[in-house]
Predict the 3D structure of the following.
Amino acid sequence: MSADVTAWDTETHLIGRGMGAPRMVCLSLANGEGTRLFNREQGLDIIEKRLLPQRTVGHHIFYDLGVAAAERKQLLYPIFKALDEGRLEDTKLRQMMIDNALGQLKYEWDDEKEEWKKQNYRLETLVYRHLGYDIAFKKKGDDIWRLRYNELDGVPLDQWPEEARTYAIDDSVLTLEIRNRQQAMVEPEGIPREETQSQAAWGLHLMSLWGVRTEGAAVEKLKTQIFADYKVQAQICTEHGFMRGASDKGKTGSKNLKKIRAAIEKWYQGHPDKDMKITPKGAIATSREQLMTTDHPGLRAVAEATKVGKLKTTYIPALERGTVVPITASYNTILETFRTSCSGGMKIDGVPVGINLQNLPRGDAVRDCFVARFGFVFIFCDFDTLEMRTLAQVCIDLFGFSVIAESIKAGRDLHVDLAAEMLGMTYDQAWALHIAGDPKMAEARQGCKIGNYGFAGGMGWRTFIAYAKGFGVTITPELAQRLHKNFRKKWREMVDYFNYCSFLCKEGDNHGRAKQIEFVRSGMMRGDVGYTATCNGFFQHLAAMGAKEAVYRVSKECYVDAGSPLHGTRPWLFAHDEIGAETPIGAIGPRGAHEAAMRLQQVMKEAMEYWCPDVDIGATVTMARRWYKGAKPVYKNGLLVPCKPVKKGKKTVWVEDV
């Protein structure tokens, strides 16, 4: 075993809803000197005085750090210091970065079954991959100690069953062995920017521990509406025979997929100009898109019933729990482009403890249920046209110029700028129409906005038509081709960019896939990449690096920088280009909340400017008492104040929420 690195792991009480950092029971560690097991108080002392000041490793170490910090708040400062100095390693994160460089982050090849299988990063999986033996059987069943350490809380270690002691120590021993195997794979260069991903993972984990609350009255209102909507749609489905009724014993409310597929097939037979979608296994697709393409009232009701049914079964129970305990979200730090993803986390009795806060249903209904805790107010800050700005930085790095960057520097709206190109007018003329609320300009800008984001990823005009439909916008083939042409004409660097990405994929000589690409600025790697993924990857990666850098910097000021206006603020939301937090408003008054919001904006801009030094970075900050979609900043006497939407005719205006 490695003498200079210590692996450690905690055993705890069970995780519960609203409780992502349960009580610690024991600490185990392993290094070149051997293995040790400590009770809670001994373990916390060891973490503080020995582990955090040296290089240590864990498997999903951020869980253990959260458990320790929940026990002793004074550990927060040395945790951040250790992360700043790159002394905390995580075998899960490291393996994900290794696999991503090989193109195997999502799937790996199974030699025995000769097929691709879904990747996972549980400790037992990495033990099998690196060490060649199966310990999965030790992790299953209700009688194993993994789920029962609460029974040993307070029991002297010398009175523990040998199986409980061995189980706890084994996790540290195996983690260290995996770390050493990984180290042999990446030496001598190591993994570029590994420490930044650990920092981001810690900031995201702190968000998940804080969580967010909901308001009972708003949840009840939404629940009443959803149940009423579902009843209406279910009735229509039943009348058409697409949903089983009371006469179908034991199957009431279930879909009759045979009749649904038959109706879809019949409709498409009557509309030969439309293309019916088929699943990979050859069945007629029953997706929402396919159902809503038809004008069949019963099929459309199936789509609506499915949508409302998910709200009824997935979101309402979680929102109701949020009135009692915080709703948490579990963040995955690494996708292929190093963006993040989000989920409801582990399940209790088959139900996730939280919900995916990054991907809530469209509209305001669900968001409106989230409210700030008593004595707090929400502050949100999101980057302006972020991926267009990171695309500009990538092009400057690769080719030495960017028209997009020039437009941003001139203070222009990128979507209006492209619309001016489309309509054959100057930017000033297009901007005047936009400011005046001209409906044709509004339509043109919306189409160009979708075009700017869709075409940047190498999308062709045919695919763009379906892409735009996802935003509720219908684009004709003629218009799609015009947009595609003018996008490349306006943003001249894109011709070079697409040629560069195409070259990388052709050079790979793997059916048009790049064997491996190195991301600009970070040097991080991604393997086995197709053309559109390559086009998207460069600028999505740079946006992710800057945004995750912001997560860590903001978290650090919130938790351990007593001199920052953000100190005492608690981040709870990360949505790719946006951070949401709760900041105290009662004791320090509105000026303190205003200063926290301004500091949030400043820190986020500084973090992104580190990664995009040649492009102007913009970020917009708002304040509200609940989570509104599309909120606008409202100022009073020079201070940012909580806002709320008010309908004035057909328009929505944002006013102070007193």
The longest helix spans residues 531-560.
